[in-house]
Amino acid sequence: MDADVVIVGGGPVGASLALLLRRSGLRAIVVDRARFPRDKPCGEGLLPAGSRVLAELGLDLAREGFPVLTGVRYRLESGASARADFRTGLGHGVRRLRLDAILAERAGVLTGVHVTAVRPGRAGVEVETSAGRLRATSVVAADGLRSPVARLLGWARPPSGKPRHGLVGHLLSDGPPTREIAVSLLGGVETYSAPAGGGEVLVAVLGPRGSLRRRGLSVEQSYREIVARAHPELAGAPLAGRVRGAGPFRVRPATVAAGGVFLAGDAAGFLDPLTGDAMAAGLVQAAALARLLAADPATAAAGYRRFVARQWRRRRVVGSLALVLTGRAALARRAVAGVTRRPGALQVLMEVNEGSRGLASIGARDWAALAGL
């Protein structure tokens, strides 16, 4: 065998998984078709659960210059808002252009390597790449929302539900960085913003197909118009780089583990960027998978499928609730008013979203507050 585990995808999930496996004494090789530094559309607001995984690997995000995040604020266009603090630790605004490069260097990612075939077998898994053949006991694909490995294995499935898309950009701001993620519900579209470090603010604009492009305007002009509605203070801010598109969202593969092959991160399923939990969820998956593979590769698949199924149920409930409120101004107003009267309800929901609480911790009074009762 060339390695105990071959990891396809050197982003935060794949690179962190390699470092976790090596701490357990396993040999891990990471390949990625990209070259670093590379940019990628992403929410970049890392919840505390994800920050903890990176801290365990010795990465001090604050020392690296990534802004600290202390909570999430949900805002309406009327100016009403409700905030939930992070009570389980600190989150961070992580510019992917920098974070990916830092982790890829630490993990020794082999860049510019394309995977052309994955062949599970009794004696392990063979991976054909543009740099040659690799053999390993296990293969993990952390290769993104449109996972090439999932397609090669026939596990990929088309997006479900009403198609939603995003436009993602970074704006330069000379003001002090905020310490919170801000989600603005604008009626039909939403924005998700977070400080990304280096004087940059990430703003993602999200909505159904056709809602993000204004008639007669370019993509960038449409993006700026929506951003100005949510963040007037950024209306004239210069763009750092270009506006990138993403979507459609809500994708889930046929399985996340079989025949010695595992899917992790966005490749294991992606709901919607509005909840901002995807990167943290992927890092938590990496930590769980590293423990399972270190304990017994032969039984890791069953344990990992159970773990991801529990995580998916929790994420789906929170994501569905968030999407119900978007585009329904009356419901959104009632929810914000309800959680303003009972702040603990939003706090519980955020901790379920972050993964530090289970679904059962959302009580009847919390649901009532979210319904504006």
Characterization of this structure:
By secondary structure, this protein is of the alpha/beta class. Helix content is 35%, strand content 25%. The chain is built from ten helices and 18 strands. It has helices at residues 12-23, 48-56, 96-107, 148-152, 219-230, 278-295, 297-325, 329-341, 343-354, 364-370; strands spanning 3-8, 28-32, 45-46, 68-69, 71-76, 81-85, 91-93, 110-111, 115-121, 124-129, 132-141, 164-172, 180-185, 190-197, 200-208, 244-246, 257-258, 261-263. The strands form three sheets. Strands 1, 2, 8, 9, 10, 11, 17 and 18 form an eight-stranded mixed beta sheet that branches. Helix 1 (12-23) runs parallel beside helix 3 and helix 6 (278-295) packs antiparallel against helix 7 (297-325). The longest helix has 29 residues, at 297-325. The radius of gyration is 20 Å and the shape is globular. It starts with a strand and ends with a helix. The mean pLDDT is 91.
